[in-house]
Design goal:
Blueprint (H helix, E strand, L loop, with lengths): L1 H6 L1 H25 L3 H29 L4 H13 L2 H20 L6 H9 L3 H30 L11 H26 L9
Helix pairs in contact: 2-3, 3-4, 7-8
Keywords: Membrane, Transmembrane, Transmembrane helix
Protein name: Integral membrane protein
């Protein structure tokens, strides 16, 4: 059975992504369009179970191969995003859907949306918030590099790790880190402004 999962791991991953998007859409439709709270709760539980399945896929792959493969790296990246920045993005999406449904029904926006708008930061305050998030990213990056260094060591001439999986992770993560750095600093140059009320 384990061998079958390993052989079809990318297929299982694609299926899990399809399940994720279907259940996410179902959650919003059931909760905000149909007002079916129990149904939306079931969809939410399915979302959580789906993410646990993704974690199991990564664990099975690592247990079987004994190394961090490209598949494991992708799974880990998805899980890290899900439980860090993904939570914030999910909140923004939730607010956006509530606003969209209220506009579609020609109703007043929910109280939760109003409270969210009141707490939103703009200008330098928002830039500082983004910078703090970047600092957490930097700290995490440094900690992982230290782990890589002490668990693998450097290869000659000293710019790469001896463990090739670590180098693959760094190749992807470095690109993400550079983009995050540019994105975070851009808010100091082009401060975020409140949306214009129509």
């Amino acid at each position: 059975m384990v061998l079958s999962i390993i052989e079809h791991q990318w297929l299982f991953f694609i299926i899990s992504e399809i399940i994720f998007w279907v259940t996410l859409i179902a959650f919003f439709v059931l909760r905000y369009v149909l007002h079916f709270r129990l149904g939306s709760f079931v969809a939410l539980v399915m979302l959580v179970l789906n993410e646990l399945w993704v974690a199991c896929l990564a664990l099975i792959n690592y247990s079987y191969t004994g190394k961090l493969s490209t598949f494991s790296i992708v799974m880990i990246a998805i899980l890290v995003y899900t439980f860090t920045w993904g939570r914030h993005d999910a909140k923004k999406l939730d607010i956006y859907i509530q606003r969209l449904v209220a506009k579609w029904r020609n109703e007043e926006v929910p109280q939760a949306v109003k409270e969210y708008d009141q707490k939103r930061l703009y200008g330098i305050a928002y830039a500082k918030k983004q910078f703090k998030s970047w600092l957490i990213h930097l700290l995490l990056f440094i900690c992982i590099q230290l782990f890589f260094y002490f668990s693998s060591g450097l290869s000659e001439p000293g710019f790469l790790y001896k463990n090739e999986s670590y180098n693959q992770i760094n190749a992807v993560w470095m690109k993400i880190f550079i983009i995050d750095t540019i994105w975070s600093l851009s808010y100091f140059i082009f401060p975020k402004k409140p949306r214009k009320q129509v």
